[in-house]
């Protein structure tokens, strides 16, 4: 079992080639914020292609514009320059087929777990029987069946994040964006949630973009990891992990995992040092 | 349950204190709990008393409705418009903390004697706390809720009614709780000066002729009603299953 | 900075509008005198010393009531906090406290303390003390446990921990209580004077109203408005500094 999860392709540390079926396409994407003190060049220019069904992670030093990148992909903010496309169409507002899981707890405390999960479907005016079917599936899938009638206040942080993931899952997104979803959780819970995420990714066939500051998380979960520079954030490296599609958290036991993490840290260390010496960290 | 027992014990202690004071200063200065309840009972049996209650309730209902609708609307407006909120907040806080009773003559001069002056005075007391609480509820709402509504592609009406309103409701109810009490206070003070009817008028005339048992009976009734309504709102807040 | 200016501008415009309406007769002189005349009249009153004793009585009452509320409220808060059973019993009562129209008990206080400052101070304290009790309880609750542990690592004696660690840690919350207590002391004193007393600013306003002395009445109203605004602004200034510290 471990062996199966561990088998890696020989060219696993090679710089990535553009995948065949492009699902998300960024070209020269740049974001500049107008602050009272002047302009802040937060991001870009960024070029990126995500293949359909790819699990892609972004790592980078704090404040490098990772979340800005996610906001652009989610249609929550627009680039000043460059193009961002999802399924061949430019991203303007939040596109259909995109789901987002935020770092902060976004579960609604006034709704039960079940109503939280069903929330988006009800607003979209979907047939009640279909809602029930999808909610049952998602609640079961995320291990929330015993808590379906509970309120978020009665759950742990990890469980609340599961609620948010389930709420995204029922919308059947083709692209799932995750903004440090496990940032507030403890290490063990994170590993287990990572397994859940992999299972979800396999079953749905969705494209996943995960933003994280944890190198091990990126190395363990992704097909490919993009390393970002300090502000203004651009990609300085892409690392292919070469994991089998059928993998889980036990890949961390293999030497190859150590190689990937080492390479990520090698690139990131210089950037993190820049941040620290500039006093921002 | 022991918590309720404790609260009951504290109330019992207050009752004992009341009785002791009554024994110390004499019945003409302070009616005993028993006398007060008896007096309240006999007042409740008269039609005249109920007319006064009705009069107060009429003014209070109007004042509270204005405070409620106006306060929530104004609060949401100031909460959404950041700059307007920042400019208005200290002014509102200051207005809240001035002794509004001294402005009463102004209200009388503007509205004349009668129910409209009482309503205006009630609104003066109740509007600002509801506004301030509603404004802060909007401002302190987690930004991630609004982003979630966006990501789920809700229309603005959908996000207003299914996300923003439920998110701010507990805070708004806290404001309404305070606004309720202060509106009642405002109406009562109004009646003490500008009316020939109502519970406030009953109080001031009892004070003027030194009818201590009537004062205590009306005070007891008002306290019971105010505390009951307050507790109901508090219960509503807790029952919402979150917070 | 620009927000502050905008606020001043808004207030100035409002006052200007009232002034204009008074001057143009939209608001009859019998209802309200122009704000500029209120200022002139207030200056005259203050210079002549006509109401000096009323002002002194009111301010003394406010100060005494505020100081008593803060001290008694703090001590009561400490005591209630030290006795969790009592706290559980009191909490529902504290939550409903402000629903009670306190001033209706004023006549009772007159029978207990007599007509005069003592009754007025008593009712103001009754109004103000609960904010201080609540703030004290809240402040002690919010002292981070790690600070107490740190004090123990330094082997500080109990009283030193209280003075050097707990008090400063709770200070921002305690000050919120002080601020509210002062505001309620003002309201309690002035309102009681207005309703039922024979001296003080509140009484002076009621007297002026009953005798159709509009000029005096508006000048005195202005005095109270200005005094409360100044006191509030000063307290808010301190409060803001303390609250900024709380975020760390």
Short overview:
With 243 residues, chain B is mainly α. Chain B has helices spanning 2-25, 33-44, 47-80, 82-97, 104-111, 115-140, 143-151, 156-194, 199-209, 212-239. Chain C is mainly alpha-helical and 248 residues long.
List keywords for this structure.
heterotrimer, B: about 240 residues, mainly alpha, MetI-like fold, 10 helices, about 0% strand, C: about 250 residues
Q: What would you say this structure looks like, in words?
A:
- The complex is a heterotrimer of chains A (281), B (243) and C (248).
- Chain A is an alpha/beta fold and 281 residues long.
- Chain A is built from 8 helices and 10 strands.
- Chain A folds into 2 domains: 2-97 and 173-277, Rossmann fold (3-Layer(aba) Sandwich), CATH 3.40.50.300; 107-172, no CATH class.
- In chain A, 36% of the residues lie in helices and 23% in strands.
- Chain B is mostly helical and 243 residues long.
- Chain B has one domain (33-239): MetI-like fold (Orthogonal Bundle).
- Chain B has helices at residues 2-25, 33-44, 47-80, 82-97, 104-111, 115-140, 143-151, 156-194, 199-209, 212-239.
- The two termini of chain B are 22 Å apart.
- Chain C has one domain (33-246): MetI-like (MetI-like fold).
- Helices cover 83% and strands 0% of the residues of chain C.
- Chain C has helices spanning 2-24, 35-48, 52-82, 84-96, 106-113, 117-141, 145-153, 158-196, 201-210, 214-246.
- The longest helix of chain C is centred in the C-terminal third of the chain and has 39 residues, at 158-196.
- Chain A binds chain B through residues 74, 76, 93-94, 96, 98-100, 102, 104-106, 108-112, 119-120, 123-124, 151-153, 171, and chain B through 142, 144-145, 147-148, 150-154, 158, 162-163, 166-167, 169, 240-243.
Structural domain tally of chain A: 2
Alpha carbon gap, first and last residue of chain C: 24 Å
**Strand fraction band of chain C?**
under 5%
Identify low-pLDDT runs of chain A.
1-19
- Largest contact between chains: B-C, 59 and 53 residues
Overall mean pLDDT of chain A: 84
CATH topology of the largest domain in chain A: Rossmann fold
Mean pLDDT of chain C: 87
Mind telling me the CATH superfamily name of the largest domain in chain A? P-loop containing nucleotide triphosphate hydrolases
Report the CATH C-level class of chain C.
Mainly Alpha
By CATH's scheme, which homologous superfamily of chain C applies? Answer: MetI-like
Radius of gyration of chain C (Å): 22 Å
> What is the H/E order of chain A?
HEEEHEEEHHHEHEHEEH
Q: Could you say what the CATH architecture of chain C is?
A: Orthogonal Bundle
């Amino acid at each position: 079992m471990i062996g199966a999860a561990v088998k890696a392709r020989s060219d696993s540390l090679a710089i990535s080639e553009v995948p065949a079926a492009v699902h998300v396409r960024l070209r020269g994407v740049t974001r500049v914020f107008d602050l009272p003190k002047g302009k802040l060049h937060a991001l870009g220019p960024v070029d990126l292609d995500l293949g359909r069904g790819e699990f892609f992670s972004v790592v980078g030093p704090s404040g490098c514009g990772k979340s800005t990148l996610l906001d652009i992909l989610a249609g929550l903010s627009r680039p000043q320059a460059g193009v961002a496309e999802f399924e061949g169409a430019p991203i303007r507002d939040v596109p259909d087929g995109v789901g987002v899981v935020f770092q902060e707890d976004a579960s609604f405390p006034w709704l039960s777990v079940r109503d939280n999960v069903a929330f988006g479907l009800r607003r979209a005016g979907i047939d009640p029987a279909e809602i029930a079917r999808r909610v049952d599936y998602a609640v079961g899938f995320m291990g929330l069946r015993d808590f379906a009638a509970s309120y978020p206040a009665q759950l742990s942080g990890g469980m609340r994040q599961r609620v948010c993931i389930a709420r995204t899952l029922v919308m059947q997104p083709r692209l799932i964006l995750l903004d440090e979803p496990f940032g507030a959780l403890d290490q063990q819970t994170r590993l287990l949630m990572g397994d859940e995420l992999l299972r979800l990714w396999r079953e749905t066939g969705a494209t996943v973009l995960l933003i994280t500051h944890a190198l091990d998380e990126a190395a363990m979960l992704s097909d490919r990891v993009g390393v970002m520079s300090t502000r203004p954030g651009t990609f300085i490296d892409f690392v292919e992990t070469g994991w089998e599609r059928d993998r889980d958290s036990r890949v961390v036991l293999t030497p190859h995992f150590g190689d990937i993490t080492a390479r990520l840290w090698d690139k990131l260390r210089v950037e993190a040092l820049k941040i620290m010496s500039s006093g921002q960290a | 349950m022991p918590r309720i027992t404790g609260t009951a014990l504290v109330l019992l202690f207050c009752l004992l204190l009341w009785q002791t004071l009554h024994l110390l200063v004499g019945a003409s200065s302070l009616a005993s709990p028993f006398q007060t309840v008896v007096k309240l009972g006999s007042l409740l049996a008269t039609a005249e008393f109920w007319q006064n209650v009705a009069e107060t309730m009429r003014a209070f209902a109007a004042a509270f409705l204005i405070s409620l609708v106006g306060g929530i609307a104004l609060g949401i407006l100031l909460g959404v418009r950041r700059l307007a909120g920042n400019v208005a907040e200290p002014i509102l806080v200051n207005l809240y903390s001035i002794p509004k009773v001294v402005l009463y003559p102004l209200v009388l001069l503007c509205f004349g004697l009668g129910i409209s002056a009482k309503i205006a005075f009630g609104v003066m007391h109740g509007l600002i706390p509801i506004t301030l609480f509603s404004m802060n509820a909007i401002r302190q709402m987690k930004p991630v809720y609004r982003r979630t509504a966006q990501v789920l592609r809700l229309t603005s009406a959908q996000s207003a009614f299914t996300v923003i309103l439920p998110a701010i409701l507990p805070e708004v109810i806290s404001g309404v709780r305070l606004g309720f009490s202060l509106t009642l206070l405002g109406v009562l003070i109004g009646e003490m000066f500008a009316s020939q009817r109502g519970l406030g008028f009953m109080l001031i005339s009892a004070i003027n002729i030194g009818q201590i048992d009537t004062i205590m009976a009306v005070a007891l009734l008002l306290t019971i009603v105010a505390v009951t309504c307050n507790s109901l709102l508090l219960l509503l807040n807790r029952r919402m299953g979150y917070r | 900075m620009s927000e502050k200016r905008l606020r001043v501008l808004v207030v100035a415009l409002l006052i200007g509008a009232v002034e204009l309406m008074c001057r143009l007769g939209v608001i009859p002189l019998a209802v309200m005198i122009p704000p500029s005349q209120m200022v002139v009249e207030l200056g005259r009153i203050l210079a002549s010393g006509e109401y000096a004793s009323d002002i002194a009585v009111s301010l003394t009452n406010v100060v005494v009531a505020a100081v008593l509320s803060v001290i008694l409220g703090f001590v009561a808060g400490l005591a209630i906090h030290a006795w969790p059973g009592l706290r559980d019993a009191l909490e529902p009562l504290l939550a409903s406290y402000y629903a009670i129209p306190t001033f209706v008990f004023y006549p009772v206080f007159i029978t207990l303390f007599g007509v005069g400052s003592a009754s007025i101070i008593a009712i103001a304290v009754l109004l103000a003390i609960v904010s201080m009790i609540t703030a004290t309880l809240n402040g002690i609750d919010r002292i981070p446990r790690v600070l107490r542990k740190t004090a123990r690592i330094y082997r500080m004696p109990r009283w030193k921990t209280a003075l050097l660690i707990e008090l400063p840690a709770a200070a921002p919350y305690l000050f919120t209580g002080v601020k509210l207590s002062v505001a309620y002391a003002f309201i309690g004193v002035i309102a009681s004077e207005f309703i039922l007393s024979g001296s003080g600013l509140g009484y002076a306003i009621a007297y002026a109203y009953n005798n159709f002395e509009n000029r005096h009445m508006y000048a005195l109203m202005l005095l109270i408005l200005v005094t409360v605004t100044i006191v509030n602004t000063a307290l808010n200034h301190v409060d803001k500094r303390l609250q900024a510290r709380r975020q760390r």
